[in-house]
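Researcher: Re-running this chain for the archive, since the previous output was lost when a drive failed. Same request as before.
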Amino acid sequence: MVRGPALLAAVLVLLVLGGAAPASAHAALRSTDPGDGTVLPRAPRAVTLTFTESVGLRDDSFRVLDPGGHRLRTEDAGHADGRSDTARVTLPDALGEGTYTVAWRVVSADSHPVSGAFTFSVGKPSATTAANAAGPTEDPLTATLHRIARYLAHLAAALLVGTAAFTALCRPPDPAPLRRLLVTGWWTLLAATVALLVLRAPYEAGTGPATALNADALGRTVTSRPGALLLTRLALLAPAALFLARVPRRREHGPLATASGAALAVGLALTWAAAEHAVAGPLVPLAVTSAVLHLLATAVWLGGLVALLTSLRGSPDTATVARFSRVALVCVTVLAVTGVFQSWRGLGSWPALTGTTYGRLLLAKLAGVSLLLLAAAVSRRWMAALVTTEAARAPRPEAARAPAVEAPVPVGASPRTAAPPPPPAPSPAGPGPGPAGPSAGDEAADPVASHRRGLRRSVLAEAVVAAVVLVLTTLLAGTVPGRAAVEAARSAPAGGVLPASVTTIPFDAGTAGGRGTVQITLDPGRTGDNAVQAVVFGPDGSLAAVPELRLSFTLPDRGIGPIAAELVDRGGYWSANSLTLPLPGTWTMKATVRVTEVDQVSESRRIRILP
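Model: Regenerated structure tokens:
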């Protein structure tokens, strides 16, 4: 158990890296004007997109290509009619006849980028259309680095806030060992926040990390809402360092110091709440308040568990454990109330609980919280047993005040020369400790030592389960809410798809120029007939032409497949108008890319097909 906190830290890292998954943006495309694939008698004056929540616009949010593949000169993008959930760009006058491609990329209110493309025709469709210019959904390396920094920031904030709260509220006898936790949490949060700030521009643009230090890109980042919130977090870390420097040296904190620490914790939590989906949708002020309380309760509970484990390395102080038990009970109550509100706001309906990715992640989190409560109940029982046993062993005040009874003195002997009384018989719990302390056998027979070991183990199990719950919470923050997913499914335009139906598969044929990615879109990603679109990108993110692309689907659990998608080269992308998937479930999608006349490579991914 001396290595318990180190083991927990390793588990946290493994859970984060092992559970990492691409974050889906919360904004889903609701409609386009003109609609995807429509043929118009005359050229439209502008292109308008409507989303399920507010979006931010970039300098290159729109790229419009003419039938020959040349980019049109357009004005800066803006919001239609002042509505933050729309994006509009004005088109040049007198568009010629043919098919035009519109590629778009915006930033969701929760700070995640989302992109796509569609086509419309003026007069009649062209014989060939311009290649889809949306570019890759995200650069894999940039996305991975951003994801790791984001998760580390969550874990570091929990460690920092939770340890400070444990020191101030639970008042351990020796807070000095907690200093290392505070220093680790502070520096990790600082490094993760700087990484998020630097990676912000390439993450939004979908480019590689090499573009992170571009001066113009950094300038745009610091003036955006996500960038301003990251700068605010960095600014709060400076006074937090001064406050935390005094925490391990003082057991008692005055009201002013406690209020200052609470204000810093609330400020840090706001830098997350104001950047995620709490700022979009109904009841925004209440949602932001709920998100702040939810984050703080999670941090105090999880970070406090790590601090408690550190304090339990030696002989545990039962008063400190009892105080943390009361603090944890308050955290559970806050988490329950805010969690119910956030679940109602994110789901919107009962079918979304099982029919959306957000709902299924929420069910997994509820299962984790239930297991966490069970582990906490076991810890409380060990603590109660330890307190009861130690109280029973404490000397009674009456016995301490009772007069000493002298041993009888034999006849003819003086009190000074009388033989000493025999030693007391050993108690049922075993012999008492000598000057060197109890032996291993004595500790094994000692109920107090047994209760201490049980308490350490149960708290460690509680901390590990809490870490899993934190990972699930972080994944929920990067998943389309059920309300938005259902709304997008009901009103999706022709060719529109749910974000979960877009899959990116990297490939490497082992030859020069044989690397890249395939972006595959299923519409609507449900049982029955689906339309398939596939775009191949080279290693630099540009469109790539390949001699052949094959796609097949298998449902191993039911023994169905492979079902081949009859892809046709459309001059820049591949598509199949009809692919029938008869049953819902987790299908295996296999993509085979032929990069030369003799070289090809196959990669598979598991995708979920909804009913």
